[in-house]
Design brief:
Belongs to the CbrA family. This is Protein CbrA. InterPro entries: FAD-bd, FAD/NAD-bd_sf, Geranylgeranyl_reductase. The chain has 368 residues and is an alpha/beta fold. The chain is built from nine helices and 18 strands. The strands form four sheets. Strands 1, 2, 7, 8, 9, 10 and 16 form a seven-stranded mixed beta sheet that branches. The chain has a seven-stranded mixed beta sheet with strand order 5-4-12-13-14-11-15, with helices on both faces. It has a two-stranded antiparallel ribbon with strand order 3-6. The longest helix has 17 residues.
Length: 368
């Protein structure tokens, strides 16, 4: 049984960034469910928008995005729709439109060859014994076992590592559903949609490389029915769907309290969404995945006896920022406060092409 310094479970943005940074400094093994190349098997609903905080992470690392990761078009505003109030507003946003799966594969491709990486693998069990972490996983057609001094859970919303560390911990979860359609809108756009009848979270749309993507986060019990009902209501706002080209579904975390951010213990660490590091106001997680990976990399480089405590302290600023997102989400998902903000017109940029009919009190009106 091989022994490593660090075992990293999951190679999304958080795991891939940390693995790359630890290369050459520690003996690392990394396990990932995705295949090394190709689109088969990738069904994670994600709008694929790189937020300014994520962009800053790449600036700090002196990295640039390759052309094949960038999607078209690049749009500089988000159309925000309040379905109940029949309000539409346009707010400026500096996102980069990307192909999320290509982005993840590119992040993995940056991992140097000295790291032992298993693609298309499944982590089955982790446990601590004799001051070591033990991992059983299936890869290359057979079951294998390794041990490591440190264990890192970068395995997302359904994190096996988080469940092993905190078996009693419960965090609010939604089902994220997303469908792709052939683009038929005359002008491509991004949108953020609030409809309290469908969800107390939010929904979205993105135009990307000739496709129109519509998705959202809904209660686990009847998410699909709520998704379809919202699609029907959005036709009144000039959303065009047609026959879906493909559908995607996964679990997404929705932190709602300070205790939802968990950092790890006993030489095991959580980064990215596995730690609850995801924005409650936008469900954006790439920024916090990259930030938490950078923080943990710094902790591994320190001569610190209690690395768990050091990581917890080092992520406090990040967790405070995410707690602020929880407070913001409460404002945005409240029908009353959201309507007041949108009616005020603060930060709204009127767009002539966006003056299209919406529904108000059962009749069509033009959005001001």
């Amino acid at each position: 049984m091989e022994h490593f310094d660090v075992a990293i479970i999951g190679l999304g943005p958080a795991g891939a960034a940390l693995t790359r940074k630890l290369s050459g400094k520690m003996r690392v093994i990394a396990l990932d469910k995705k295949r090394q190349c190709g689109n088969e098997g990738f069904t994670k609903p994600c709008g694929g928008l790189l937020a300014p905080d994520a962009q800053r992470s790449f600036i700090r690392d002196g990295m640039t995005l390759p052309v094949d990761v960038i999607a078209n078009p690049q749009i500089f505003s988000v159309k925000t729709v309040d379905v109940d109030a029949a309000l539409t507003r346009n707010y400026p946003r500096s996102y980069i439109n990307i192909n999320r799966h290509a982005f993840d594969l590119w992040m993995k491709s940056l991992i140097p060859d000295d790291v032992q990486v298993y693609h298309d693998s499944l982590c089955r069990k982790v446990w601590r014994e004799e001051d070591k972490w033990h991992v059983i996983f299936r890869a290359d057609g057979w079951e294998q076992q390794i041990s490591a001094r440190y264990l890192v859970g970068a395995d997302g919303a359904n994190s096996l590592v988080r469940r092993a560390l905190y078996p009693q911990h419960r965090i609010r979860k939604y089902v994220a559903i997303q469908q792709w359609f052939a683009e038929s809108h005359p002008v491509p756009f991004y949108s953020c949609i609030f409809d309290n009848a469908a969800t107390d979270c939010y929904s979205w749309s993105i135009s990307k490389d000739g496709y129109f993507i519509f998705g959202g986060a809904y209660p686990m019990k009847d998410g699909q029915a709520r998704f379809e009902a919202l699609k029907a209501r959005m036709e009144a706002f000039q959303f065009r769907f047609g026959k879906p080209v493909k559908s995607e579904k996964c679990t997404v975390l929705f932190p709602s309290r300070w205790a939802d951010f968990v950092c790890g213990k006993e030489n095991a660490f959580l980064i990215g969404e596995a730690a609850g590091f995801i924005s409650a106001s936008s469900l954006e997680g790439i920024s916090y995945a990259l930030d938490s990976a950078e923080i943990l990399h710094g902790i591994f480089g320190q001569e610190t006896a209690d690395k768990n405590n050091a990581y917890r302290k080092a992520t406090r600023k990040l967790r405070l920022k995410l707690y602020g997102k929880i407070l913001k989400s409460r404002v945005l998902t409240s029908a009353m406060t959201r309507r007041w903000i949108m009616q005020s017109g603060v930060a709204h940029i009127p767009v002539t092409q966006d003056d299209q009919p919406t529904v108000n009190a059962g009749r069509l009106v033009n959005t001001p």
